[in-house]
Structures are given as structure tokens and as C-alpha cells.
């Protein structure tokens, strides 16, 4: 794309800005790295509704995101619905992650295992800093997790307000 000099300078400036991510749902890193991850982990949150509304049975969805079950079986369950949600807005971040963090242009029958292997190999201490801070240039992420056992300055836990708003008397405390 052709940009004016001003547009190019703005893009370069923004590419180097550290930002605040105001809404995440990330567990502490030690929880993440203790978990088995694979390519279908990328579809374990916001894409749930897209998959189910495209026809996937909710029980099948729970199987698809269960990384303790065989990947090949889960991929076969997932693939037909992936084609339905491929261009949905919540799928885009998963495909961007596959490209930007793991070096694959798409998720296919030929590479879902390789992507999964690379994801698991990189699921080590420091993953949040490598991806969130270094690659995404996020200084701090406000995390809607309902827990406080974060051990660094990257993720700042926010407690759900309903915990406090539902207190009506001393017995509720």
C-alpha cells in the first residue's frame, strides 16, 4: 500500500508504542505453562459461540477444546465448523497468532499437528513476556480473571464487580 510520508511516520510511531490492554482473560503464566496446548486452544474462548451457532454441538465443542483428548479426533470434529467460521471476527486473532507467532499462513490438514507441536514447545516460562510485551508491545494487561495470584507486573488482575455489588449485609461478607 502506498502511504504519504505523514501516514508512514504515524504508522512507524504507532508500531513502537507500548500500550495498555484493557481487557484480557488470561490465567497466571504458571497455570498456562502447566497446561497442554495445541492449535485448538486458540479456539477455546470467543469462537465458542461462533462454532455452536454454525451447528457444532456444545458437547462436541467441549471435546474439541479438551487438549487431553487425541488431537486427530478433535481436529476431525472441528474442521467442518472451522470452514463456517473462518472469516468471522473472532477467528481472525487465532489465524493472526498462527501466522505472527508460529510462522504458518493458515491452519490446514497438513499443518495442524506441526502448529500444535510448535505451540507446545513455546509454552514455557516467559511466554507472556515474549508474546504480550515483546511482540504485541503491551506494557500491562488488565485481566478479568477473578483471581490475584499473578506474579509479575505484566498482568494486573481485576476482580469482578458483582462479587462486591452483591453484598447486602454482614452475612454476605
Number of strands: 3
**Overall pLDDT metric:** 94
Order of helices and strands: HEHHHHHHHEEH
Provide the domain count: 2
Describe the sheet with the most strands. 3 strands, parallel
Proportion of helical residues = 40-55%
General shape: globular
Number of helices, counting only DSSP H or I runs of 4 residues or more: 9
Gap between N and C termini, in Å?
58 Å
Our estimate of the beta-strand percent is 5-15%
Which structural class fits the helix and strand makeup? mainly alpha
**Looking across the biggest beta sheet, what order are the strands in?**
1-2-3
Rg over alpha carbons: 19 Å
Q: List low-pLDDT spans.
A: none
Explain this structure to me?
The protein has two domains: 84 residues, no CATH class; 87 residues. It has a three-stranded parallel beta sheet, covered by helices on one side. The protein has nine helices and three strands, in the order H-E-H-H-H-H-H-H-H-E-E-H. The chain is mostly helical.
